[in-house]
Amino acid sequence: MKIRIYSPSSSLANLGYPWSRHLNDWPDRCFVDVPCGIHRNVVKFIQYEDNIYVLKELRTHVAKKELANLHKLEALGLPVVNSVGLVEKRDEAVEEASNEYTQDSPKIKDMFDRGLLITKFLDGSLPYRVIIERGINYTRLEQMLDSLAQLLVRVHLVGFYWGDCSFSNALFKRDAGLLTAFLVDAETGEFHKKLSKGQREYDLELAHLNIAGDLMDLEAHCGLPNDADPVDLADSLVSKYHYFWGQLTDPIEIGANEQYKIDQFIERINTQGYDIGELEIDTLVRGTRLFVRPVNVEPGFNRKKLQKLTGLLVGENQAKRLLQDIYRYQPYLSGMKKQPVNIGSAARRWLIDIYQTSLDMIAVELRDHLDDAEVFHEILEHRWYISEQQKKDVGTIEATKSYVRLRLSLREIK
Ligand SMILES: Nc1ncnc2c1ncn2[C@@H]1O[C@H](COP(=O)(O)OP(=O)(O)OP(=O)(O)O)[C@@H](O)[C@H]1O
Ligand SMILES: [Mg+2]
User: Scanning 6, 15, 57, 126, which has its CA 20 to 30 A from the CA of 384?
Assistant: First the structure.
């Protein structure tokens, strides 16, 4: 048996789990119960130290492919579950017997190979069924479709054909009040240098079919907000996809002396959370008009920027929100110090004096399982609300105290 752990921080390999046995034959006490989406393969959850890991039974060659896909998507900075490792050659008796007549035919050997894919449980995430079953409003459902369409655009931009985009194969996590969809099942995916329009459209068609199916299922089970029609909703995913794709890849036409429009164009794409790696500019009509096309658009603009300034790695919308707060803090700090403070120094001070200080004031029981950046986002929302109420700027630390009081009173009411 071989256990490959790719994530160095994980010491799972040292545990006495019955790795060689099929997951269905493991004792129940090995597993923890967590909300989970629909799946055809056997999927189970185990807890080790503070982490939950997800184990999935697959043929080894499929598990290897899925692991490689997840790994590459993660390295490209896309929202995807973290791959941890793979267990293979689990059944040594079968391994030895099969060696004899499969030497010349590795494909037959694959049939004997049962692999186990290990990923890290995506903290703070929920499967779509749980979100919808708990009762959501129509706006939230729209946000889920938005985030799934964005995810499909993002993976297509890096040349990844998903082959099974659906609500079941994604997980949803709060991101500064909105939702971000994470890719969870990459078994069917393939990387290409660049996807053709046909490949993208086909992937989108599969997504449409899957999502209509996912939603019909739920409609029958618990109904949908506003009695929404599953097919209309699936149609709206397609329009959202085309809209986001167009926003990021459609060229603009400008006059030769309107170069400032290129800056505006780049800024618009940055605000949507994307970085432009390369621009292609063609001259038209005797050089009086220019055609500007983004060639290489990469997601994670705000995430990367925040990480560079503070070391924090958070969701894209959270990063945008936190950066806004740093930009707001910079002139305040310059005023306090009576000299200009650059953005790097402001970010370092903000991290300790504002971000960390505020979070340290919020006890675990008041966090509602939200991650740090999401709690801080809530504090910023609260700061805005009480500043409006008091018709003056309330500081972040003051707002945090008020947020704690509010949370405590809500707990008492419950
Ligand atoms: N890393 C993870 N973190 C949290 N939940 C996870 C993770 N991996 C899987 N899950 C949960 O398990 C469910 C099933 O996983 P997955 O889609 O990979 O299984 P599958 O059997 O390959 O699915 P399919 O039937 O689409 O082939 C997901 O919908 C999700 O709820
Ligand atoms: Mg799946």
Answer: 126
Beta-carbon contacts of residue 268 (< 8 Å; ≥ 6 apart): 247
Q: What is the position in ligand 1's atom list of the atom closest to the CA of 41? A: 21
DSSP letters, 107-163, are: HHHHHH-EEEEEEE--TTEE-HHHHHHT---HHHHHHHHHHHHHHHHHHHHTTEE-S
Which residue of 44, 119, 168, 180 sits with most ligand 1 atoms within 8 Å of its CB, as the best mutation to test the pocket?
168
State residue 11 phi and psi, 5-degree precision. Answer: -115, 25
C-beta of 40 in contact with ligand 1 (< 6 A): yes
400 is in which domain, residue-wise? 303-413
Helix or strand holding residue 222 (H, E): helix 197-222
Residue after which a domain boundary falls, among 247, 282, 316: 247
For residue 43, give the ligand nearest its CA: 1
Residue 70 contacts residue 171 (beta carbons within 8 Å) = no
Task: Point out the ligand 1 atom lying closest to the alpha carbon of residue 164.
Answer: 26
**What is the spatial distance between Cα 175 and Cα 15, in angstroms, rounded to a whole number?**
34
State whether 314 and 385 are in the same domain: yes
Q: Are 139 and 48 in a shared domain?
A: no
Pairing of strands 51-59, 178-183: unpaired
**Which residues have a Cβ under 8 Å from the Cβ of 396 and sit 6 or more positions away?**
325, 354, 358, 379, 380, 383
Q: Is 299 in the pocket of ligand 1 (CB under 6 A)?
A: no
- Report the domain count for the chain: 4
